[in-house]
């Protein structure tokens, strides 16, 4: 059973940086899965922030391009999100996601990121 656990959230001032990490346990499929980060702000729908395929291809939401960088370490079953130049509108709960064709997507419990103005 795959379990995802996020870490690294917190409170930061506008313009600051945070690094989120997600560790996948019990996963023999991590290296062949697409993994990514989504976020959900109060009163809004969950949205894609960034994802990276098993081949290393990435895509980002337009709102974070040039500020956020996603990376993965298949040897450690981890995916990270480096967030720079944070803005108040980046405030949300950030969720780690693991997706593989013909399988149920997995989600972590989420980690809060708050950017103060």
The gist of it:
The protein has about 120 residues and is an all-beta fold. About 0% of the residues lie in helices and about 50% in strands. The mean pLDDT is about 95.
Describe the structure.
The protein has no helices and 11 strands. The protein is mainly β and 117 residues long. Strands 2, 4, 5, 6, 9, 10 and 11 form a 7-stranded mixed β-sheet that branches. Strands 1-3-8-7 form a 4-stranded antiparallel β-sheet, with no helix packed on it.
Which key terms come to mind for this protein?
mainly beta; four-stranded antiparallel beta sheet; seven-stranded mixed beta sheet; 117 residues; single chain
Outline the fold blueprint.
Layout: E1 3-7, E2 10-13, E3 18-25, E4 34-40, E5 47-52, E6 58-60, E7 68-73, E8 78-83, E9 92-99, E10 106-107, E11 111-116
Parallel strand pairs: 2-11
Antiparallel strand pairs: 1-3, 3-8, 4-5, 4-9, 5-6, 7-8, 9-10, 9-11
| Poorly predicted parts | none
Oligomer class: single chain
Alpha carbon gap, first and last residue? 40 Å
The secondary-structure element order is: EEEEEEEEEEE
Number of strands: 11
Total of DSSP H or I helical runs spanning 4+ residues: 0
Strand content: over 45%
Structural class: mainly beta
Instruction: Please give the radius of gyration in angstroms.
Output: 13 Å
Helical percent range? under 10%
Q: Mean pLDDT, as a whole number?
A: 95
State the major sheet: 7 strands, mixed
